[in-house]
Amino acid sequence: MFTGIVEELGEVTAVEDLGDAARFRLRGPVVTEGARHGDSIAVNGVCLTVVDHDSDSFTADVMAETLTRSSLGALAPGSRVNLERPTAVGGRLGGHLVQGHVDGVGTVTAREPSEHWELVTVSLPAHLARYVVEKGSITVDGVSLTVVEAGEEHFTISLIPTTLALTTLGHKQPGDPVNLEVDVIAKYVERMLGHRVAPATAGEESR
Question: Part of which pathway (predicted)?
Answer without folding.
Answer: Cofactor biosynthesis; riboflavin biosynthesis; riboflavin from 2-hydroxy-3-oxobutyl phosphate and 5-amino-6-(D-ribitylamino)uracil: step 2/2
